[in-house]
TrEMBL record:
EC number in record: 7.6.2.9
Domain of life: Bacteria
Annotated ranges, domain ABC transporter: 5-235
Record flagged with keyword ATP-binding: yes
Pfam families: ABC_tran, TOBE_2
InterPro entries: AAA+_ATPase, ABC_SmlMolc_Importer, ABC_transporter-like_ATP-bd, ABC_transporter-like_CS, Mo/tungstate-bd_C_term_dom, P-loop_NTPase, Transp-assoc_OB_typ2
UniProt protein name: ABC-type quaternary amine transporter
Recorded GO MF terms: ABC-type quaternary ammonium compound transporting activity; ATP binding; ATP hydrolysis activity
Enzyme class, first EC level, given as a word: translocase
Species of provenance: Serinibacter arcticus
Record key words, sorted: ATP-binding, Nucleotide-binding, Transport
GO cellular component: ATP-binding cassette (ABC) transporter complex
Length: 330
C-alpha cells in the first residue's frame, strides 16, 4: 500500500477545548477514505489541518512522506470541495474549471484540453459556456468537483460535498463520485455524517467521536463488527441487551423476527408489543421484553413478513440468528 498522507499524534485545541485528540491516521493512495461521525466530532478540523487551513497544536502531518505540518495550503497540491460550492459567478463553467490551471500557468491550448477532458469526466461538456447561476445544484456540485480535479491534485478533499443536494440526487452523485474516483485513481478524503454515504463510498471508513478515532477499516469489516456501542449506535444498531455474564449484545431491527418458538442458537426474548408502525413494505414492532435478568429492554423489530399479525398488548417472541447477534466490547 502506498501512503498518500499520514496524521501522527495530531491534536488541535481551541482554548481549553480539544477538537482533535492525538489521532494517528494513514490515508492510502488511490483510495477513498471517509471521516465519519456526528456533528462536532472533529472531522472538519482534521480535514482543515490536512488542507493546511489550520495548524495542529501538536503532532505531524505527512503528505507523500514529507512533513507538511506547516506547509501553506497553496503549496500542498490539494483539491478541495466544500459544502457550498464557492464557484466564481462571473466566470463560465469552463473558466471556473480552468481557474487553477491558469494560476499554475498552464499554456492555453493544454488548459483547454484538460478542461474539456475534466468536464467530460463529470458529464458537463455541453455546459462549458454557461454561467454557474444557470445550473442546478447537482450541476454546480459537478463544476466544483471538476475544478478541484482539473489540477490533478495529490489529494482531493471533500467536506460534506453532497449534503446540499436533495435525497435522490445525493444517491446518484454517490455513484458518480465512485466512478470518478475509480476512473482517475485519485486519493480522496471525504467528510460526512451520513453513514450510508460512508458505507457506499469508502475503501476505508474512519469513525470519529469527540476528537478521537473509534474504529477504522473497510466498510465490509467495520459494519458487521462495530468495536463498541458508540460505533454500533452510529451505524444504526439498536436493541442492546446485556447478558448474565455482562457481555453486551446488539441486533439490528431488520434481523429480529417474530417467532412462535425460541430458536436454539442466537437470541430469543419474550415481551409485550407496545406499538406497531405501518411503513408500507415493512412494519416496526416495538416490544418491551424481559432480558432474562428481570429487567425490561425495549426492542424494535423491522418485520417484513406480512403473515405476522402482532398487535399492541400481545405477548410475542422475538428472535435473531446467531450470525446476526453482534457482541460488543463495551
Ligand atoms: P460538523 O459536521 O458539525 O462540522 P465536525 O465533526 O466537522 O462537525 P468540527 O467542525 O471539526 O466538527 O469541530 C469540532 C469541534 O471543535 C466542535 O465542537 C467545534 O465547535 C469546535 N471548533 C471548530 N473550530 C473551532 C474554532 N476555530 N474555534 C473554536 N472551536 C472550534
Amino acid at each position: 500500500m502506498t501512503v498518500a498522507a499520514e496524521f501522527q499524534q495530531v491534536t488541535q485545541r481551541f482554548g481549553d477545548f480539544t477538537a482533535v485528540d492525538a489521532i494517528d491516521l494513514t490515508i492510502p493512495a488511490g483510495q477513498l477514505t471517509t471521516l465519519l461521525g456526528p456533528s462536532g466530532c472533529g472531522k472538519t478540523t482534521s480535514l482543515r489541518m490536512l488542507a493546511g487551513y489550520s495548524t495542529p497544536t501538536s503532532g505531524r502531518i505527512l503528505i507523500d512522506g514529507v512533513d507538511s505540518t506547516r506547509t501553506p495550503p497553496e503549496r500542498r497540491g490539494l483539491g478541495m470541495v466544500f459544502q457550498s460550492y464557492a464557484l466564481f459567478p462571473h466566470l463560465t463553467v469552463a473558466e471556473n474549471v480552468g481557474y487553477g490551471l491558469k494560476l499554475r500557468k498552464m499554456p492555453a491550448a493544454e488548459r483547454k484540453r484538460v478542461v474539456a477532458e475534466t468536464l467530460d469526466l463529470v458529464g458537463l461538456g455541453h455546459l462549458a459556456a454557461s454561467r454557474p447561476r444557470k445550473l442546478s445544484g447537482g450541476q454546480q456540485q459537478r463544476v466544483a468537483l471538476a475544478r478541484a480535479i482539473a489540477i490533478r491534485p495529490k489529494l482531493l478533499l471533500l467536506d460534506e460535498p453532497l449534503s446540499n443536494l436533495d435525497a435522490r440526487l445525493r444517491v446518484h452523485m454517490r455513484a458518480e463520485l465512485r466512478r470518478i474516483q475509480a476512473e482517475t485513481g485519485l486519493t480522496v478524503v471525504l467528510v460526512t455524517h451520513d453513514q450510508d454515504e460512508a458505507l457506499e463510498l469508502s475503501d476505508q471508513m474512519v469513525v470519529m467521536r469527540e476528537g478521537r478515532i473509534l474504529q477504522q477499516g473497510a466498510p465490509v469489516d467495520v459494519f458487521p463488527a462495530p468495536a463498541n456501542r458508540l460505533v454500533a449506535e452510529f451505524l444504526g444498531y439498536e436493541n442492546f441487551v446485556t447478558s448474565a455474564d455482562g457481555t453486551l449484545r446488539t441486533v439490528r431491527p431488520e434481523h429480529l423476527n417474530v417467532v412462535s418458538e425460541p430458536t436454539t442458537a442466537g437470541l430469543t426474548l419474550e415481551g409485550v408489543v407496545v406499538d406497531v408502525a405501518f411503513r408500507g413494505v415493512d412494519r416496526l414492532v416495538t416490544v418491551d421484553a424481559d432480558d432474562g435478568l428481570g429487567r425490561t429492554v425495549r426492542l424494535t423489530a423491522d418485520v417484513r413478513d406480512g403473515a405476522v399479525t402482532a398487535r399492541p398488548g400481545d405477548r410475542i417472541l422475538l428472535s435473531a440468528d446467531q450470525a446476526h447477534v453482534v457482541t460488543l466490547a463495551g
